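Morning - iron/sulfur cluster inputs below, output right after.
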Amino acid sequence: MGELENTDFLSMDRRTFLKVVGAMGASAFLGLHRSEISKALELSKTRVIWIHGAECTGCSESVLNGRDPDIFQAIQKLSVDIAYHEMLIQQQGIFVDGELASTSELNSEIMLDEAIEEGGYILVVEGAIANGPDGTGKYCMYGERTFKELFTKAASNATFVLAIGMCATYGGINSANSEIVDLMDFRGVAFLRRDPSKGMLTELGIDRPVINIAGCPSNPDWVLLTLAAVILGKIDINDPDPILDEFKRPLVFFPENVTLHWNCPRRGYYDIGQFDTEFSGDACLWKLGCKGPYTHSDCALRKWNGSVNMCTQAGSPCISCCEPGFFDNSTPFYKNVQTVAPSNSETDSSFPSNENNEDTITPAAIGLGATAGATVIGSAAYAARRIVQKDDNKKEMDQ
Ligand code: SF4
Ligand code: SF4
C-alpha cells in the first residue's frame, strides 16, 4: 500500500489505473487519493439516474451496506449528484384537492422525467426489463407506465449505461427456466443470458455504451470503483470495450484466465483431495457443488462484508452468481456437477462437461496417480497448516 500512496493516479494511463483500483478496495482508493480526486472533480458534478426494474433491490442494499466508504462518503468524494434513486430519494406523490400534485417537488415521477429530459447522466439500471406480454412490457409497471417505456426514455438520453446485478445484466432469476419464462420475456440491458442479440437495447434499437457489473448481488467495490473510473475519465465511455470481457464485465474484477478457485481459502484441500460431503466442514466444497472452478470473479481476494469473508470461506459452495446464464447454469446449487448435467441445454457449452470437470482436478486429488508437483506440495502444506491452526485454536478454547 505504501507504494500506492505515492502514485499519481491522475497521470496514470487507463490500464494502469484500472489495475491499481482493481487491487485496492474502494475504501483504500477513495481514501488515499482524496485530495487529487477533489482537484480532478473541482468543476464537475456527475449526475446519476438509478432505476429499478424486476429485482429484489439486493444490489442497492449491497452498495448501501458497503463500508469505508459508505455510499454517502463515496458520493461526496466523487462529486456525484444522484438525481434519482428509488430507495434513496423519498417518494412523493402528494394529492392536492384530490388531484396528484403536478410539480417535481411533490411528485417524484415528474422529478424523474425532468432529470431524464436534462440528459447527460450516467444511467444505472438495477433489475430486468419485462418485454412481455407480446412486447408490451406490461409485466413490470412503474406508476402509470411500463418499466420498458421508462427504460427506453432513460437509456436514450444517457451518456452511458451501467447495468448492475444479474437481473439487469443477463436477466438473472427472472430469465430462469420456467413455464412462464417466454411469456414474461424479461431481458437484461445488453444481453439475455449469454445472448447479446436479445438484450433490451438491441430490441429497442438504442445504441449506448454499456458496462455490466455482474453478481447476485454485485460487490459494492465493483460498482463504486467502476463508477469512480468512469467519473474520473479513466474509462473511455465511448469505447469501454478494451477493458471489458465478451460479456461486458470489467476484466479487472472478472478476469478471463483466472477463476475464484485459484485463490480460494480452501484450495489446499482440493489439491490434496480432501472434500467435504456434508456442510460445516473445513475441506474443499467441490463435492457439495462448488462452482468456483468455473467462476471468473475476484471474490476470493476482494471478499465481502468489508473484506471480512466470502462464500467458500464461510462454508457455502460458490454458486457462480456472476457468470452469464446464472441461475440455470448453476443449478442444482449443491450437487457435484460431475454427476449432474447442467439443466439448460442452451448453456451446456459454457459450463463444464462432466469430463472437463474432472480435468480441473489434479491427479493427486482424485487418486489417479502421485504427481508430487510443487503446487501439490505447496497446497498440501497450506492445508496442513490450516488443520494445525484449527487444532491450536481448539486447544486454546478448551483451556
Ligand atoms: S472447488 Fe470451491 S471450495 Fe474447493 S477449492 Fe475450488 S473454489 Fe474452493
Ligand atoms: S463466491 Fe461465487 S457465489 Fe459467492 S459472491 Fe462470489 S461468485 Fe457469487
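Note: The chain has a mean pLDDT of 79.

O.
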